[in-house]
Every structure is written in C-alpha cells, then in structure tokens.
Amino acid sequence: SYDLTQPPSLSVSPGQTASITCSGDKLGNKYIYWYQQKAGQSPVPVIYQDSQRPSGIPERFSGSNSGNTATLIISGTQAMDEADYYCQTWDSTTVVFGGGTKLTVL
Amino acid sequence: QVQVVESGGGVVQPGRSLRLSCTVSGFTFSSYSLHWVRQAPGKGLEWMAVISYDGTNNDHAGSVKGRFTISRDNSKKILYLQMNSLRPEDTAVYYCVRVGIQNTYGFNWLDLWGQGTLVTVSA
C-alpha cells in the first residue's frame, strides 16, 4: 500500500508563511490534493491537482509537488487558518490520506 | 443548494449491521462518483470506499473489504454503505463525499463533503 507522511503539528505566528509537507514515494508523479478541516467541521478542499485553488479559496493558499514531497504553503497566515490539514492522493483506484498536520497560529 | 446529507448513524452493538445513506441536492446524482470517508474520534481521515457514477465500478479499503459494501440507486438518488460485523474500532463519523469532475471514476479531488453521521459501536 502507498503511504503519505505529514508532520503531526506546525506552529506559526500571524503573518508568517506556513509550509506543510507531505511525503511519499515518487509523489511528484501523482497529483496531490489538500483539505482543511477546522474544529468541529467537515473537510474543505483548498488545493487540487498539486497547485490549483478551488473557487473561493484565498490566494494565500498555494501548493507544489516534486520528487518525493508535496508542500502546501499558506502565505501571510491568519488566525482563521488554524486547522488540521490533510494531503491526499490516489494509489491505483484507491484514495490515500496523509495523517494530517495540526496548524496552530500563535 | 449543492449538498450531500448523510443519515443512518447511531449506536450499534459489536457484530451487528448498519446501513448508512446519503442523499444529495443541487446537482445530478447520476453524473458523479461518490466516496465514503470516515474519521474516528480525534483521529485523521480514513478512506472507506468509492463507487462510479453509473454504479458499475467500486473499490473498498482493505480494512473493511468483505464487511462493508458501497452501492447506489440512481433512480432513487441515494448512496449506501452497508456495514456488517461491526467492531468498536469502526466507531467514527462517516462522510459522504462527491468527486470533483463529472462522469469520472478515479484520480479526482473530493470537492463536496457532507456533515457526516456518527456511528458508535459499543456494547
């Protein structure tokens, strides 16, 4: 089976850049998707196909994917960005999620 | 309003069965593949199953293969997850999730999530 590895937690100060990584074997050969889940809410997609932003997602969210690592970048992090973030890809016809990263905005 | 709504959760004893349902509004049900994803209390997301928009293809996570079955009725516009031989570790919120592109099966983003339905497996 295919595994995606994320750091369990990350802390940033308001206004700083948050970089959340997701690692997997030859991940750059696959599409990566990112979801934001705020406390008590359902997940919401923030990045699809490595770097595309869905409608309504702020420009401060961006993504990249190369080699074995994909990265979700939040520029000018705001208090409202505090949430759990999950990366996702496909392994054949099954979905794989990373373990999630809890982003704290101090 | 474009949405998916899960139902059928509750408290069930170990070894028993439960069937979850998902109804949709605001989009053409038969044009989208659908997934079930679960989240145990305080844990991360775990993918359960996917079914194609026409119901001809499906896949299940290895952890539930043989116990859980995804199906759909396009005439009634309902997605199902039949869960048999339930275990305490199946306790979770179960989400119904739509894929991002019509008339496709795999390699897609999950663009629309329901609020989830809580399943508690306990004696």
Written overview of the protein:
The complex is a heterodimer of chains A (106) and B (123). Chain A is mainly β and 106 residues long. Chain A has no helices and nine strands. Chain A is globular, with a radius of gyration of 13 Å. With 123 residues, chain B is mainly β. Chain B has strands at residues 3-7, 10-12, 18-25, 34-39, 45-51, 58-60, 68-73, 78-83, 92-99, 110-113, 117-121. In chain B, strands 2, 4, 5, 6, 9, 10 and 11 form a seven-stranded mixed beta sheet that branches. In chain B, strand 4 (34-39) and strand 5 (45-51) form a beta hairpin. The chains are: A mainly beta (106), B mainly beta (123). At the A-B interface, strand 3, strand 7 and strand 8 of A face strand 5 and strand 10 of B.
How would you summarize the topology of this molecule?
The complex is a heterodimer of chains A (106) and B (123).
Chain A: E1 9-12, E2 18-23, E3 33-37, E4 44-47, E5 61-66, E6 69-74, E7 83-91, E8 94-97, E9 101-105
Parallel strand pairs in A: 1-9
Antiparallel strand pairs in A: 2-6, 3-4, 3-7, 5-6, 7-8, 7-9
Chain B: E1 3-7, E2 10-12, E3 18-25, E4 34-39, E5 45-51, E6 58-60, E7 68-73, E8 78-83, E9 92-99, E10 110-113, E11 117-121
Parallel strand pairs in B: 2-11
Antiparallel strand pairs in B: 1-3, 3-8, 4-5, 4-9, 5-6, 7-8, 9-10, 9-11
